[in-house]
Amino acid sequence: MADHDAKEEQRPLNQWKRSKGGFVASMFIFVLSALDNMGFVANMVSIVLYFYGVMHFDLASSANTLTNFMGSTYLLSLVGGFISDTYLNRFTTCLLFGSLEVLALAMLTVQAASSHLHPEACGKSSCVKGGIAGMFYTSLCLLALGMGGVRGSMTAFGADQFDEKDPTEAKALASFFNWLLLSSTVGAITGVTGVVWVSTQKSWHWGFFIITIASSVGFVTLALGKPFYRIKTPGDSPTLRIAQVIVVAFKNRKLSLPESHGELYEISDKDATTEKITHTNQMRFLDKAAIIQENSKPEAWKVCTVTQVEEVKILTRMLPIVASTIILNTCMAQLQTFSVQQGNIMNLKLGSLTVPAPSIPVIPLVFISVLVPLYELFFVPIARKITHHPSGITQLQRVGVGLVLSAISMAVAGIVEVKRRDQGRKDPSRPISLFWLSFQYGIFGIADMFTLVGLLEFFYRESPANMKSLSTSFTWLSTALGYFLSTVFVNVINAVTKRITPSKQGWLHGFDLNQNNLNLFYWFLATLSCLNFFNYLYWASKYKYKCEDSGPGFKALAEMPLKRVERKEDYGSDRE
């Protein structure tokens, strides 16, 4: 009788689930991903030439300006993730930050179109000043905030359209991340070919204008899909819950842990409004936050639930994984700065067609656009039968493959640079073909396919229910730190090598790449990537997946029907 009543109670929820979410809702998100990423990647690979040729930064300053901008963009994804987890739902957050992005792109378009808003060449590392600098940096800051906020909410919003507790939808969720990558790749291909060609061969302001219109259409499309979405309502502040555990654990540091974890405080199932997480034996000192002292009532800042403590443990276990992928993103930054500058002084001819140097990343993007469907349609089904994992292989295994390939990419980049520089010194009028760069771009493109999807799925699946956006933003946090680290490496290596080299010139000094030692910088990153891979292996082997904490593993998820637990705060009405 009780089972019958439970089924009757679940029937409206199941009917609601079938009418909303899934791949029908995801299609609107895929459109936004393609159109928004078209402009994002076009800027990422070409705007360094805008800094260099129009805004008159030197080589190092234009590269650093780009990496600082990209780093800020990805870092600000944490803001979008925090807001969508705590104050606004992910749908509203995405539209809010999208409006800031469109405004910033419009400002860039106006400045690029007006010659009186361009600085005069001065021969210094940076020539922007006064009102020109004010408009330039304001537009970049707004663009970083808008794009970052969108990335901090859009991925988790798309993943919300699938219930990871349902075996069928759990497999669909794994597929969602692959198709999201494919949609963004299709947009990126358009950006690095059509938009980059317009920007570099016609006029920068027309390129920015196309990006502005595309992004506007993307966000309008997202808004039109509202009737089809599952919109989760925000919960308690993630940072507040984390702070409570740390503070209470510190206050209870002198207390002894009970012999059984069953004596730790946890709310009953009937009172739970969030998914409960099973206790683990790692980081036991945090368990002291869940000790109820005698003659005291359960109150905030006096005691925390086991679930709340486990949320902090999960985030803590994630941090070494985040740190282990920073170097990979530092390597990626070079392909958007120095590799583009390399291509700009190489032979850009493909028959009678002149190829813009920033368009060379189309090669790895084409690889990805072919490999993603092959991976999803052929590799994953076969791997599922062997591993019983919904994604075919674990997310951390995917990341490990990407880290190895990124190290190989940097080693190859150094070899190609030696060949380019030697020919440039020997006969500058006959540079080698631009397509020599396709080796390093192609290898890194495959690395990115493995790593990006692996990290996004890893952070979404492993994160607590009320921290999905914030945790997914850890992927972009790693990217941000990688870009900032690139800036640090460029400045430090220039300063150090300037003192120790016989020529008293840094590896990356001045305006002429033919007089630099960019190959040594690439090989430095390749060596660092190899060391980082072994560091990653250590932490990945130590990591305990959340599903392992909860009993049945991914095999049960792939093969057994699971009982659906209704959570009051999971999904709200289509408001906002």
Automatic annotation (TrEMBL):
List the InterPro entries.
MFS_trans_sf (IPR036259), POT_fam (IPR000109)
Q: Name one GO molecular function term.
A: transmembrane transporter activity
Q: Membrane topology per the record?
A: Multi-pass membrane protein
SUPFAM superfamilies with a match to the protein in the record: MFS general substrate transporter
Keywords from the named record = Membrane, Transmembrane, Transmembrane helix
Q: Which residues cross the membrane?
A: 21-53, 65-83, 95-114, 134-152, 173-198, 204-224, 318-339, 359-378, 399-418, 438-460, 481-500, 520-539
Q: What is the name attached to this protein's record? A: Protein NRT1/ PTR FAMILY 4.6
Q: Name one Pfam family in it.
A: PTR2
Taking the first listed entry, what is the main subcellular location of this protein, grouped into a coarse class?
A: membrane
Per the UniProt entry, what species is this protein from, by scientific name? Vigna radiata var. radiata (Mung bean)
Tell me where it resides.
Membrane
Entry similarity comment: Belongs to the major facilitator superfamily. Proton-dependent oligopeptide transporter (POT/PTR) (TC 2.A.17) family.
List the record's Gene Ontology CC terms alphabetically: membrane
